Amino acid sequence: MKNAFVLALIPALLLSGCAPKAEKATLKEGTPAYALAKDLAAVMPALDPDKTTVIVEAKGLAVTAAEVIQAVRNNLGTRTDQLKSADAGQLKNIIEQGATQIAERKLLLAAAAAAKTVVPAEEFDKAMQSEYARAGSEQAFLEALKGAEISIDHVKKSVEETLVINKYLEGIVEAGAKITEEDLRQAYLDETAGDKTASVRHILILTQGKTDLEKAEARKKIEDILAKAKAGEDFAELAKQYSEDPGSKDNGGLYEDFPRGQMVKPFEDASFSVPVGEMSGVVETTYGYHIIKIVDRKRETRPFEELRGELESRLKQGKEGTVVEDHIKGLKEKAKFKLIGL
């Protein structure tokens, strides 16, 4: 339960709904967040709400432990009681990651404001309707929030800010993930430089979970099978008789047209290096011992223009994954972001 809560808690902080501000947030005595902080301070004194513990500093902002705890309470309501069972190591991880995410969110909101990013009212309404639908109805959603002591105003503000950030980042991605003609041409050369797929038959004798003695017996068994195959016995029939791979055994050990990157590395290496029509020796993987017979390999033969759309989509997807990370990194560097920690 502890681990599940810890894993669920950090993403929730992304909805913290905190506007950019430079002052050091504190907690008001008598509030649920103050009481939570007092309880957590018994495990980690730095979280005492009567202290001002700054965890992250950057130009124009400072994120305190109090602000993180308030964000946790705002987003999870009474569920934060589970946090009291976390140990010091878990608390340190939660609070520091939470402070980092809150700081990043503030930097993104400031950048979005500077870029005059605006979300149309209909987009916000659609997002809220989606939240209501997931709960079953608007009334059910509101009742769930009430039961958890979470403010609907906080949720609406969080959703609106998240939409603004997402819209801002969409523009960053669109500008940063452009694919040039040179990118496409190089990708095509890479695509057509070697074999694209392989088709093989294989025989597997499992070794997972076995003792050293059992592994030695498995090795002897696969070597005996290899000798039969080399002597001319039908490979597909040997696979049906001896292979312990349920995914291919009944099909004579056949795996057809699989691309690079799909199989474990020793299996892939043999599949794309042993000449077509020939057999490997004994190949060991994390699954066990294999014998692999190469049935066929294929290269990409489609012309560039036919592959253009597919290549562009693949390259763009790859770039999109790093554009946002690089942009946030740039914002943090410009703001002289510093994780002080606990």
Which terms summarize this structure?
single chain; alpha+beta; Chitinase A, domain 3; three-stranded antiparallel β-sheet; 55% helix; disordered N terminus
Offer a quick outline of the entry.
By secondary structure, this protein is of the alpha+beta class.
If you had to describe this structure to a student in words, what would you say it looks like?
- This protein has 2 domains: 2-117 and 153-171 and 330-339, no CATH class; 190-299, Chitinase A, domain 3 (Roll), CATH 3.10.50.40.
- 55% of the residues lie in helices and 13% in strands.
- The chain has 12 helices and 7 strands.
- It has helices at residues 2-12, 32-41, 65-76, 88-114, 121-135, 138-148, 152-176, 181-192, 212-230, 235-242, 265-271, 304-334; strands at 54-58, 61-64, 195-206, 254-259, 283-284, 288-299, 338-339.
- A 4-stranded antiparallel beta sheet has the order 4-3-6-5. It has a 3-stranded antiparallel beta sheet with strand order 2-1-7.
- A hairpin with a 3-residue loop joins strand 5 and strand 6 (288-299).
- The model is unreliable at 1-14 (pLDDT under 50).
Give the topology, please.
Layout: H1 2-12, H2 32-41, E1 54-58, E2 61-64, H3 65-76, H4 88-114, H5 121-135, H6 138-148, H7 152-176, H8 181-192, E3 195-206, H9 212-230, H10 235-242, E4 254-259, H11 265-271, E5 283-284, E6 288-299, H12 304-334, E7 338-339
Antiparallel strand pairs: 1-2, 1-7, 3-4, 3-6, 5-6
Helix pairs in contact: 2-3, 3-4, 4-7, 5-6, 5-7, 7-12, 8-12
